[in-house]
Design a protein that fits this description.
5-stranded parallel β-sheet, Rossmann fold, alpha/beta, 12 strands
């Protein structure tokens, strides 16, 4: 059993168990629980529009959910910063659109997200809250609650709550896709089997990722800035990997869609500004293969440019490995589940980068676990 000097590392290792506990809330005998389906039927609207409001890591899981719900369910999804949503100043009576509203929060008490939830309820919109606290204010005030079972998360950087959010959002997509007739019984059974296999797969890879990311953190600790790149659903993970590095280690990083690198950010790429590129692929999905081939071309261009690149790729992908400075392998998974395993080595990289920079990784400066409303000073 590994030893844990920090809660963040412990919680990274707790993710397989947290995922199993969370899946048990929504699956029974490898099938969707019908009582959850009944609750969700009261949340969705006939127009098929969803607005997701969240902040920080939760917003990144919302970006992944946008792709899942649009691709698997045919829904129209917008993702808003919770801090912006309730400050838009729109006239409630004149609004033509009334999407269902999904709020995401680890604590269920985040002030901006709670304000967004209350604004949605004021507008008469149906609401769904996904939180890691079943008794939280958001869970109580939303029309429907889909809690996580990640357990208490003590470290400020979110790890197990983030991957459990992704799992519940995938389950939401399965429920919605089934309700809408977009996912048939045979496909649903396959999706559930793949999801249930994920905790064991992550568990088997954790020690290898831990050793590899510790080595890479030592190698790249002098870098000034990192650019994280991902396409499609993996853009959300690029954003999350960059956020984890900033908040855990105080090293600057930004997440971009891979195809946007040459639209400006490439001017930053140098020996002191490495790239972290998500280059996984689901070879059973045409869109994923297309995304992957475009990413390969960018890696070729970056190799010719002399860029330092860390890639996250499928196990055994020697083509990606030949084009980059360092390659971190993850076992293959379906496109819409790949974000869950591929974010874990990025969490470990941020953890070891924090240690390399002497940061108290569980308690980064100026941050708190739940961002609540500040009280006026006396």
């Amino acid at each position: 059993m590994p030893t844990f000097n920090h809660e963040m590392l412990r919680e990274i290792y707790e993710q397989p168990l947290a995922l199993r506990h969370t899946l048990a809330l929504y699956l029974a005998n490898s099938a969707l629980k019908p009582d959850v389906a009944s609750l969700l039927a009261n949340w969705a609207i006939p127009e098929g529009e969803i607005l997701i409001a969240a902040s920080g890591s939760s917003r990144h899981s919302g970006l992944a959910a946008e792709i899942m719900l649009e691709d698997l369910c045919g829904l129209a999804v917008d993702v808003e910063y919770a801090s912006e949503y309730s400050c838009r100043g729109s006239n409630i009576k004149d609004e033509l659109r009334h999407p269902s509203v999904l709020v995401l929060s680890q604590s269920g008490e985040t002030s901006d997200t709670l304000a967004a939830l209350r604004e949605a309820r004021l507008r008469g919109q149906k609401t769904l809250a996904i939180t890691n606290a079943a008794a939280s204010t958001m869970a109580s005030e939303a029309d429907v609650s889909m809690p996580l079972a990640a357990g208490i998360e003590k470290a400020i950087p979110a790890t197990k709550s983030f991957t459990c959010q992704l799992a519940v959002l995938y389950l939401l997509a399965l429920y919605e896709g089934t309700r809408l007739g977009r996912i048939d019984s045979r496909s649903l059974a396959l999706h559930i089997r793949e999801l249930e296999a994920l905790p064991g797969s992550i568990e088997a890879q954790l020690d290898g990722w831990r050793r590899h990311m510790a080595s890479l953190a030592n190698k790249y600790k002098s870098a000034n800035t990192f650019l994280y790149l991902g396409r499609g659903i993996h853009y959300a993970i690029a954003r999350e990997g960059a956020l984890k590095l900033k908040e855990a280690s105080y090293v600057h990083a930004e997440g971009y869609p891979t195809g946007e690198l040459k639209h400006g950010p490439n001017a930053l790429v140098s020996d002191s500004v490495p790239l972290v590129v998500l280059a996984t692929v689901d070879r059973t999905l045409h869109a994923s293969v297309l995304r992957y081939e475009k990413t390969l071309q960018l890696l070729r261009d970056m190799q010719a440019q002399g860029a330092r690149v860390i890639a996250i790729a499928n196990s055994g992908d020697e083509e990606v490995a030949s084009l980059v400075s360092d390659c971190v392998f993850v076992e293959p998974a379906p496109e819409y589940l790949l974000p869950i395993p591929e974010v874990v080595p990025l969490q470990l990289f941020s953890y070891f980068m924090a240690l390399a920079h002497g940061v108290d990784v569980d308690r980064p400066r100026n941050l708190s676990k739940a961002v609540v409303e500040s009280q006026p000073s006396a």
